[in-house]
Design a protein that fits this description.
The complex is a heterodimer. By secondary structure, chain A is mainly alpha-helical. Chain A has helices spanning 3-38, 43-59, 83-94, 97-138, 149-162, 167-183, 189-203, 208-224, 233-242, 256-259, 261-265, 267-278, 285-300, 305-323, 328-331, 335-353, 366-374, 386-390, 412-423, 428-434, 447-454, and strands spanning 380-383, 400-401, 439-443, 458-463, 467-472. Chain A has two domains: 12-41 and 79-353, no CATH class; 366-472, no CATH class. The relative contact order of chain A is 0.13. The model of chain B has no long low-confidence stretch (mean pLDDT 87). Classes of the chains: A mainly alpha, B alpha/beta. The interface between A and B is large, with 43 and 35 residues.
Chain lengths: 475, 483
């Protein structure tokens, strides 16, 4: 074949591969958007955010303690954890399903675009895409509005910023950490991630300059923990919110198999299998620390499986590229093509999002609590699922709950009483008497429900697919 | 191995202590002893449940642990118990020793083996007990060693599979592992070479070998059926592994991380180039999947990963590197025997002291069961922990709803048992329909609280842990009307 023909063949191959990549990118992006559209919203976060957000906007103030809505721990410090996230989530939710879905899709797309970008930088186009796929598998079940993908977005953005240590990265990481800490308690991950990377640089004996900037970034992100309305109280309360206390799993599910069963069965093992196959290359202490921290985090709480995916996938992409070197020149994709594809997908997302029903049907359990809140009589409520109680606070209700989804703000004695109530252990009836509980929201067809039905003086007054509402002295 | 022996010695003290002080009244051991006694008396391995259950009489049964049952019966008390329980500890230690030897054969250094044995040993802690599956651990380690041998000894895997199948149904792993090793070897060799041919023969022959037991083809069929058996969701040890399992967190997870960090490449001694070990990759993936899906596989993963991870650690980290050793002197040879002997002597001494200092195990439901035996009449017994009902097996006039044999009970029995336990709406109707007239419950558990609120039941025995409930005559009439 002549050299001209070879050049033409090569140009044709390149064009084909670019086209194939555009198609694959578009398909992945469409997959992400579809996943967001069809994923259920996180009702627990939404109900509480609605309560907090509305209160902040109405009162023009940020409460740093539990209010009178809490029956058992009014006045306990909350450090206003997640206040900004509550305001934004409530505003988006109030703006309607289209806008909230659009922003959820946008968050997911940016997350995976960043994963792809980081993985492509170290592993090339093919493995960049494969790493994105892996991260996607780890995020199945977290795509819904107010779902866990936002934590992954912050984590991957921070990792992206810290990839290029320097003044800008240190400042950027600090600002991002400030934002993250005000949006969610998971903001305490920011200094943890920075610390892992700084320790890695130290053990790998990187240049002094790099080490210095990494430590400065860590210091900045650590200081950011105090840049919230909770000030000094934030780290303690946020840590308590995320504490890996196995006793709490009885009232807040966080076993990965329960929280994100598909991600735990598909993405998590696949990441380990890929690592078994190729190892981590180049072998750096920072990478093994990251693998250790992200793996433990995901195993401890399934909500963080997406964080594991977005942090570990680029690392595995790089390892795979070291194991199986590919002719990169043919496969390089101009950045502009990806951006065009993403823009196209976003446009499609707007169209599709408009098809989402404007009103979400009330989720089982939450609906009953919300209906109770509309009752003229103020109730003293205890819920088998603490998140259900969040919905009881809506609409300026006078209903008070024994314990709600802000588990971290409640003292240990209240948590223990709630666990005993859920398992019908020990003095659970005494708790009902002591706090003069007059309404109980129990899971249908479970022991509590049956015992309430058998207990004189209590009567089932409403039920849905998941829960039964019992009232004391109801006729 | 020299450091590994020290670690194994430390573990030996712990395993022997746990085994000897293991609750002799454990529900599983009770039915296993009853099984062993029945086999020794009748010279027949039963194939169906007998009249000791009122819910599943004549249900087909594959008592896969028949040989363990005989051993459990022979070692039911006194010195026999010490020997029998001690043998279970030796099985766990044997698995670690075989896996360590396997790692050494593959080029692991003494330091790397010691570290990995420490992780693997810790991983075995939670699953360890005087239990049939523990006797399967050395079989697995031996099978993996045989499969890794490039020579005629590879065929010994077939014999291992046959023996294994008489102790525990996990022998089903033998042909599966043989198969994946054959495929992996083919990919490693990039040809259907001698090793691949040998492993293929082993895989096929192992499939036949696991039928070399009193149940024949029924054993692998039973094992395959167990994969999708819904009853697993009601049994604790089949629950999904989580970070709360310390054996996983401090034993298996470090091994997984090391395997993930180093990967499965190794340097070929012949060419000096790296070759890709598909066999190891497949094994890690299979056992990795198993360990993430059920806590009972934690120990199995550790035994399989040790010979893969320790050599990788030796190759990749200088401090763990294997240094060429000069030919052994007489002192070295003496040390080779003396170190293990000293280690085990210390371990046994420590174990004996620990056993003496360990308080007696908390009884199971012996007290309510003893109280029930004194109450005249026939009893259809429901236990809220089905293992307790194993204590009633063989007792005249007592028939159980569900007991520790668990597997042979049909699905509808399990569903009814759970419906009652969870107080689902039809729980009282099921109690009536099944003819339950006796209940052994943990004091103050939800079902116990519910019985106190419904008419027709009375407490016949109560202590700080248990309550024994009997239907009143009025309750029995009501139940008959209801059913």
């Amino acid at each position: 074949m002549s050299s001209a023909a070879l050049r033409a063949q090569s140009a044709s191959d390149a064009a084909l591969s670019h086209l194939a990549f555009k198609i694959v990118h578009t398909a992945v992006a469409l997959g992400v958007v579809s996943a967001v559209i069809f994923a259920p919203a996180n009702e627990a976060t939404l109900a509480l955010d609605h309560f907090d957000g509305a209160r902040i906007l109405a009162g023009h103030g940020i409460a740093t303690t539990l209010g009178m809505e809490s029956l058992s721990a009014a006045g306990s410090p909350t450090a206003a954890v997640g206040w900004l996230g509550a305001v934004v989530t409530d505003a988006l939710a109030s703006a309607g399903a289209t806008l909230s879905t659009f922003f959820a899709a946008l968050a997911a797309l940016v997350t995976f675009a960043l994963v792809e970008r980081r993985a492509r930088r170290v592993g090339g186009a093919i493995f960049g895409l494969a790493a994105t796929g892996l991260a996607l598998l780890c995020a199945i079940g977290s795509f819904g509005f107010a779902g866990g993908i936002v934590t992954a977005l912050f984590a991957v953005t921070l990792a992206e910023i810290l990839d290029r240590p320097g003044t800008a990265a240190a400042v950027g990481a600090t600002l991002l950490a400030v934002l993250w800490c005000n949006v969610a308690p998971q903001g305490i991950f920011a200094p943890a991630i920075s610390l892992v990377l700084a320790l890695g640089a130290r053990f790998e004996a990187r240049s002094e300059d790099e080490q210095r900037w990494r430590w400065i970034a860590f210091a900045g992100t650590a200081l950011a923990l105090f840049a919230t309305p909770g000030f000094l109280a934030f780290p303690g309360i946020a840590l308590e919110d995320l504490r890996l206390d196995r006793g709490l799993q009885d009232i807040v599910p966080f076993n990965p198999i329960e929280v994100a069963p598909l991600a735990y069965r598909l993405g998590f093992p696949l990441a380990f299998f890929a690592a078994f196959a190729v190892g981590v290359r180049p072998r750096r202490v920072g990478d093994v620390l990251l693998l250790l921290a992200a793996g433990l985090l995901a195993l401890a709480n399934g909500t963080y499986l997406p964080v594991f995916g977005v942090l570990v996938a680029p690392l595995l992409g790089a390892s795979a590229a070291a194991e199986f070197p590919l002719p990169e020149s043919k496969l390089a994709t101009p950045r502009g093509d990806v951006l065009v594809a993403i823009a196209g997908v976003l446009a499609a997302a707007i169209l599709v999002a408009t098809l989402v029903p404007r009103e979400r049907p009330a989720a089982p359990g939450y609906g009953l609590a919300a209906a109770l809140a509309l009752d003229a009589k103020p109730h003293r409520l205890m819920c088998m699922n603490v998140d259900w109680c969040d919905a009881a606070f809506a609409n300026d209700s006078a209903t008070r709950a024994f314990m709600d989804g802000r588990v971290g703000a409640y003292p240990q004695s209240v948590r223990d009483a709630q666990v005993a109530f859920v398992h019908l252990h020990g003095p659970w009836r005494r708790t009902l008497a002591t706090y003069r509980i007059d309404a109980v929201l129990a899971r249908k067809n479970r022991g509590l429900s049956m015992l309430m039905a058998l207990t004189p003086g209590w009567k089932a007054v409403a039920s849905d697919d998941l829960a039964v509402l019992y009232e004391r002295g109801a006729r | 191995m020299k450091y590994a022996w020290l670690v194994i010695g430390v573990l030996a003290a712990r395993f022997v202590t746990t085994a000897i002080t293991y609750p002799p009244g454990d529900g599983d051991l009770f039915w296993q002893r009853a099984l062993g006694a029945s086999i020794l008396r009748t010279h027949v391995v039963p194939r169906a449940l007998g009249a000791d259950t009122f819910t599943a009489q004549n249900a087909p049964w594959v008592p896969q642990e028949w040989l363990f049952g005989i051993a459990a019966y022979l070692g039911r008390s006194g010195l026999g118990w010490d020997i029998f329980a001690g043998a279970c500890a030796v099985a766990a230690l044997g698995a670690l020793a075989i896996a360590s030897y396997h790692a050494e054969r593959r080029g692991a250094s003494a330091r790397a083996i010691a570290l990995c044995v420490a992780f693997a040993g810790y991983a075995l802690f939670e699953s360890f007990g005087v239990r049939a599956q523990v006797t399967a651990w050395p079989m697995l380690a031996l099978l993996l060693l045989c499969l890794d041998i490039d020579g005629p000894w590879c065929y010994a895997a077939i014999a291992v599979a046959a023996i294994w199948s008489n102790w525990h149904a996990s022998a089903m792993l033998a042909p599966i592992l043989g198969g994946i090793y054959a495929v992996g070897s083919g990919l490693d060799e990039r040809a259907f070479g001698s090793r691949t041919r040998r492993l293929t023969i082993v895989a096929v022959a192992s499939a036949a070998a696991i039928c070399a037991n009193p149940f024949g083809w029924d054993l692998p069929r039973y094992a395959i059926g167990l994969f999708n058996n819904p009853i697993k969701s009601y049994i604790n040890e089949w629950s999904v592994t989580n970070v709360g399992d310390t054996s996983f967190l401090l034993g298996v997870f470090p091994l997984m991380l090391l395997a993930a960090f180093f990967g499965v490449r190794r340097t070929s001694p012949a060419s000096g180039e790296e070759d890709y070990r598909w066999r190891d990759l497949f094994a890690l993936c299979v056992f990795g999947f198993l360990v993430l899906t059920a806590a009972r596989n934690i120990g199995v993963f550790a035994i399989a990963a040790l010979p893969i991870v320790a050599p990788a650690l030796s190759r990749r980290v200088a401090w763990f590197a294997r240094v060429p050793e000069p030919p052994p002197t007489a002192n070295d040879k003496l040390a080779g025997v003396a170190i293990p002997a000293f280690t085990f002597a210390v371990a046994v001494t420590v174990a004996v002291r620990l056993i003496a200092a360990t308080p007696p195990a908390t009884e199971l439901a012996n007290a309510p069961m003893a109280a029930l035996a004194r109450i005249p009449g026939d009893h259809n017994v429901y236990c809220s922990d089905f293992a307790w009902c194993s204590l009633a097996l063989g007792t005249p006039h007592e028939r159980v709803f569900l007991d520790g044999r668990a597997d042979p009970y049909p699905r509808d029995v399990w569903e009814d048992w759970v419906t009652i336990l969870r107080l689902d709406p039809s729980w009282q109707a099921i109690l009536a329909r099944r003819g339950v007239d006796t209940m052994v419950l943990k004091r103050d558990e939800p079902l116990d609280q519910a019985l106190a609120l419904v008419p027709g039941w009375r407490v016949a025995f109560s202590n700080t842990h248990y309550r024994l409930w009997l239907r009143t005559s009025w309750g029995a009439r009501e139940a008959r009307t209801r059913s």
